[in-house]
Amino acid sequence: MTIGSKSRPRWLPEKSFPSYAYLPGRQPHPVRHPAGHSYHSEAIPVAEEASLDSDMFVWGIDLFNHGYYWEAHEVWEGLWQVADRGAPLRTLFKGLILLSAAGVKIREGKQAAAVRHAGRAAALLRRLMNAPDRTIERALGMSPAVLAEHAEAAARIPAALQTPPPGQPQAVFDFILGSNSPGNADPIAGGYW
Fold first, then answer.
1. pTM value?
2. Distances (CA, A) of 42 to 38, 97, 112, 126
3. How many Cβ atoms sit within 10 Å of the Cβ of residue 156?
4. Which of 93, 102, 109, 133 sits a CA distance of 20 to 30 A from 119?
């Protein structure tokens, strides 16, 4: 499968993407290295509360959909840290963090690690299948079960990756998260969600 990010929607178009998509060992560490894209900038804040309505969650979706997997992981980790232990949101954020890690490993060509991370993400996402409401499904734009299937498929059948210029983001998943994210009108219903 060949995947492009040019036609992928932006949920927070007012925010600028980082100057590069970090891959370990290929670019300067974003936070620790003086040439890093986030060096001496405000650290990604830990969220005040874990919320699917937050700009922080939606920013993670934007980063993820456009191939900034390490950066999406960092954003979602801030939400995971404040989510209640044992809560479905904590499980969701951990699943998304692991899926982001799988994206990094796919880009690095580390198939075994990608399969391991994607499998762990899928297992967590499947634990959310019986959620009493559809809040998570609406935020993801798909059910957790479908996202779990996508995660495993992506790890089994690696994307036909081109070699982008160093640091350029590259989407490796053939799905888009957040098609029903906050602030995005439903063209059929004419409203939000």
1. 0.83
2. 8, 21, 34, 35
3. 12
4. 133
What is the SS3 assignment for 26? coil
Residue with structure tokens 């888009």? 176
The residue assigned the tokens 């070699």 is 163
Tokens representing 136 are 């998570």
| Structure tokens given for 124 | 């967590």
* CA 83/CA 178 separation, integer angstroms: 20
57-111: pLDDT as tens digits: 999 999 999 999 999 999 999 899 999 999 999 999 999 999 999 999 998 888 8
59: Cβ contacts below 8 Å, ≥ 6 apart: 11, 12, 15, 75
